[in-house]
């Protein structure tokens, strides 16, 4: 193999990040997303994979066609982190309730939950195909056994290993039926951490016997069922390797994953720009260490050219045997042969294709309805006097789920509750009084009833910043002064389970795992005693 041939071969194993938007000025994260000029250059030099984020589903459809037209490497791997359906990242497609919603249902109605999980995978896969993607970076196989996990949380299918294994296997059956590749992540398990690997390197202290009983169970099941790819976790597990994170560990990726568990598909790193890795090694060295450990595909190196240069040098000087390169290229080819080619409509010159079907929409609503939890009486229908709905947003602004017309704002407003939105970069509701009994600044809230709405879930890069906010104390304070009229929690089930115990039977409370506008509307309809049809009629006449 000549030097030029080796370079093009290595480039095929990179997966770089691009915006789903067409224009460079539309990029949301230009530090990570290559410009169009850079994308064209890298794809024409042989880079074989792209992960996309940003833009609508229709824009994604066009973007995938464009990227394929720029590529000289043959078939591209085009993927996205769409763990909650394509609409999670790309408006215009279906945004599904998070996997944890199905996991909670599995505790009481496992048969129905498994059917929903398979439909979840099929809908995600079908819409991926329609948009031009051939690789879905899901399912999350982490067993979320730590309620304080700041980064996995509702992305997991549950906190019990056998339940998670059953559900991810059902999800994967749906993806298979749609003809797209799946990805089991994050190996060997990121569920029992209270640190975010986007920011630091989490440590998992469990011994091997515990890993076998909990963390590895879903991965074993999906490997046995023929999952196409496995993504690594940026975690340090001394029981497996006391010096290297799993992504850079031969003991984890080759000895455990390949040899012991018998996985023969593609191993892809989690994004190498994450600080758990980038704080340890530069983009070239990180790529070399991951590839030497047993990874096939290098996802989001901080510098694509540096990664290619370093890998070529390591192969040329014998640090990595050239047979490893051939093995990885072979696995990549076999994976691409195992997925359907993009449909004619997806690669046509015009984007007129139905991205969201009525069947997809029904699944979205069924997942929401089946995962709602409500206790206590209905909220009062008579208008509140000087009422306020205090909304805590734990997320990055602007929030797609909290537009000005979102149900969490508009529905309470129709009942006399003015919205006060709190965010750690904006209004804070907390009292500066050192008295621990006074958590909230009640003067800021005004004199009326308070309807509390909390959007709380694990959010990458935020390290659970709202995790320790004193919402329990705030609820107790509002109860003491007889001003709490209701509580709605969207997202994290662990916060809901702890806070609902504080709410007396005389006050309305409700929970939805989903945070999207449809989930808000359905939960508030239930809490106010409206049917969906009645609420739609009210909206029409307002």
Describe the strand arrangement of the main beta sheet, using strand numbers.
9-14-13-12-10-11
Report, as a whole number of angstroms, the end-to-end distance. 71 Å
Estimate percent helicity. 40-55%
Mean pLDDT: 92
Q: Which stretches of 5+ consecutive residues score pLDDT under 50?
A: 533-542
- The share of residues in extended strands comes to 5-15%
Oligomer: single chain
- The number of helical runs is 20
Overview of the structural elements:
The strands form 3 sheets. The protein has a 6-stranded mixed β-sheet with strand order 9-14-13-12-10-11, with helices on both faces. Helix 1 (3-11) crosses helix 12, helix 4 packs antiparallel against helix 5 and helix 4 packs across helix 14. It is globular and about 80 Å long. The longest helix has 22 residues, at 110-131. 40% of the residues lie in helices and 12% in strands. With 542 residues, it is of the alpha/beta class. It has helices at 3-11, 36-44, 57-70, 99-108, 110-131, 161-178, 208-213, 216-225, 250-260, 275-278, 283-293, 304-316, 322-337, 358-371, 407-414, 442-445, 471-480, 493-499, 517-528, 532-541, and strands spanning 14-19, 49-53, 77-80, 135-136, 183-187, 229-232, 266-268, 298-299, 373-375, 387-393, 417-422, 450-456, 484-491, 508-512. Residues 533-542 have low confidence and may be disordered. The protein contains 20 helices and 14 strands. The protein starts with a helix and ends with a helix.
């Amino acid at each position: 193999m000549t030097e030029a041939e080796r370079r093009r071969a290595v480039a095929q194993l990179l997966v770089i990040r691009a915006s789903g938007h067409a224009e460079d000025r539309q990029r949301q994260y230009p530090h990570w997303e290559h410009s169009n000029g850079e994308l064209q250059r890298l794809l024409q030099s042989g880079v074989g994979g792209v992960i996309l984020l940003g833009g609508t589903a229709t824009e994604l459809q066009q973007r995938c066609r464009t990227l394929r037209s720029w590529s000289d490497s043959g078939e591209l791997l085009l993927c996205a982190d769409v763990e909650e359906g394509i609409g999670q990242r790309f408006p215009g497609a279906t945004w599904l309730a998070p996997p944890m919603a199905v996991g909670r249902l599995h505790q009481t109605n496992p048969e129905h939950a498994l059917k929903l999980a398979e439909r979840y995978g099929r809908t995600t896969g079908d819409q991926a195909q329609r948009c031009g993607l051939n690789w879905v970076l899901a399912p999350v196989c982490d067993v979320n056994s730590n309620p304080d996990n700041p980064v996995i949380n509702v992305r997991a299918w549950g906190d019990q290993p056998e339940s998670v294994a059953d559900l991810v296997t059902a999800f994967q059956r749906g993806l298979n039926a749609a003809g797209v590749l799946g990805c089991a992540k994050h190996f060997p398990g990121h569920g029992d951490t209270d640190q975010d690997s986007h920011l630091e390197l989490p440590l998992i202290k469990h011994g091997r016997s515990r890993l076998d009983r909990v963390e590895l169970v879903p991965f074993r099941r999906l490997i046995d069922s023929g999952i196409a790819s496995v993504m690594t976790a940026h975690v340090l597990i001394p029981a497996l390797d006391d010096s290297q994170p799993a992504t850079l560990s031969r003991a984890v990726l080759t000895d455990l994953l390949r040899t012991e568990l018998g996985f023969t598909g593609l191993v892809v790193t989690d994004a190498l720009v994450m600080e758990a890795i980038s704080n340890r090694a530069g983009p070239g060295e990180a790529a070399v260490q991951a590839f030497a450990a047993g990874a096939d595909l290098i996802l989001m190196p901080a510098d694509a050219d540096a990664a290619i240069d370093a890998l070529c040098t390591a192969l040329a000087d014998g640090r990595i045997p050239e047979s490893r390169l051939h093995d990885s290229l072979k696995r990549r080819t076999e994976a691409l042969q195992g997925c359907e080619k993009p449909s004619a409509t997806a690669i046509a010159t015009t984007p007129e294709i139905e991205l969201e079907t009525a069947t997809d929409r029904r699944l979205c609503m069924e997942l929401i309805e089946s995962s709602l939890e409500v206790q206590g009486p209905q909220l009062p229908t008579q208008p509140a006097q000087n009422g306020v709905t205090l909304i805590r947003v734990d997320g990055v602004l602007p929030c797609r789920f909290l537009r000005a017309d979102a149900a969490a704002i508009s529905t309470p407003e129709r009942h006399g509750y003015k919205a006060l939105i709190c965010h750690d970069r904006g209004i804070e509701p907390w009292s500066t009084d050192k008295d621990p009994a006074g958590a909230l600044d009640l003067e800021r809230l005004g004199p009326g009833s308070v309807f509390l709405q909390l959007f709380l879930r694990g959010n990458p890069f935020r390290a659970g910043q709202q995790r320790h906010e004193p919402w329990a104390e705030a609820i107790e304070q509002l109860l003491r002064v007889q001003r709490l009229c209701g509580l709605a929690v969207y997202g994290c089930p662990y916060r809901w389970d702890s806070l609902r115990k504080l709410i007396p039977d005389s006050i309305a409370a409700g929970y939805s795992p989903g945070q999207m506008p449809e989930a808000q509307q359905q939960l508030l309809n239930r809490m106010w005693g409206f049917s969906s049809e009645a609420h739609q009629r009210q909206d029409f006449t307002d």
